[in-house]
Amino acid sequence: MTQIYTYGNYLKDKFGCKVYKVGINISGFTCPNIDGTVAKGGCTFCENDSFSASTNEVQELKGFHLNLDSKENPYLQKQLEQLEIQFNAISKRQKDEYGAQKFIVYFQSFTNTYAPFETLKALYEKALSFDNVVGLSIGTRSDSITEETLDYLGELNKTKEIWIEFGIQSIYDKTLKKINRGHDSENVKDWILKSKKAGLNVCGHLIFGLPDESKEMMIETAVEAYKWGIDSVKYHPLYVVKRTALANDFINGKFKPISEEEYLDVLVQTINIKPKNISVQRITAGIDDESLLAPQWCKDKNTQIKNINKALKPSGLKY
158 Cβ partners below 8 Å, 6+ apart? Predict the structure, then answer.
């Protein structure tokens, strides 16, 4: 059996040791699809409160949100302190429990280029100053990054490992409209190509099981994403959580979640046609708490991985 080329494999090959991503949530960041800039309410599957930094949230920053047009940031120092506290706590646990030796600081929640350039520069440089940090991974949207930020990240990438993560989700504009995405597929393609031209590493997020999409549509999205030159991929099944627009559609019988059988079929096909140089960062997703409405197979990750490996076995692959 051949192991799928994972992001962990890539990092170990490049740095010769265990490299872990340290997920960071910075208060004051939001999304243009939530604050009304491009749309309101966020994507239909997004429970906005789930992105809150909650226990890590700086009290003074509650209700304060940045965007690309913000003229000042009176809470930058608080954000820098929050970044350091989170990094120290999480990296220590990763060292102690998993033997991590080096780190990628992952700006994870919300849209992490959606702020004034000086704020981004200060946060990114602070993150790169921590011991044993070899790079950054920045989760964002393709409609929320400027040429200035992209050029800056390109410069950082000359000496550090810089990744940018875009939510592709689907290449079908009718699907993106149904989920209230706020931008079209051409916008994502454009910024992925620009990011690659700037020398950055790109991770693309794909969601299988979006409203009214066939297996063929899901596979075609993966095929196109591969063609755009992404370096890594995250595969997600669409699951329904409470307090979302998608939950209302599910409760009213307007949305039927993807079955595990269909997800496995699409996943195996897309992995089999994936270029070998593209690493896999995530192969499924789910949530094990009372907020999950459906599908119930997304509740237990260990069972998901077991079933994924069973589905991959005929292809001679394992995860």
Answer: 199
Question: What does the alpha-carbon distance between residue 314 and residue 164 come to, in Å, rounded to a whole number?
Answer: 33
pLDDT by residue (tens digit) across 220-273? 999 999 999 999 999 999 999 999 999 999 999 999 999 999 999 999 999 999
- Tokens representing residue 152 in the block: 């800056």
What is the per-residue pLDDT across 175-216, written as a single tens digit (0 to 9) for each?
A: 999 999 999 999 999 999 999 999 999 999 999 999 999 999
Task: Give Cα 218 distance to the centre of its chain.
Answer: 18
Which domains are assigned to the chain? 2-239+271-285 (3.80.30)
Q: In sequence order, what are the residues at sequence separation of 6 or more whose Cβ sits closer than 8 angstroms to the Cβ of residue 297?
A: 259, 260, 286, 303, 304
**Crossing angle of the two packed helices 117-129 and 76-98, in degrees rounded to 10:** 30
Nearest to 185 by CA among 203, 173, 196: 173
Three-class secondary structure of residue 158 per DSSP: coil
Q: Please, what's the b/e burial string for 178-199 (b: 16 or more CB within 10 A of its CB; e: otherwise)? A: bbbbbbbbebbbebbebbbebe
Radius of gyration of the chain (CA): 19
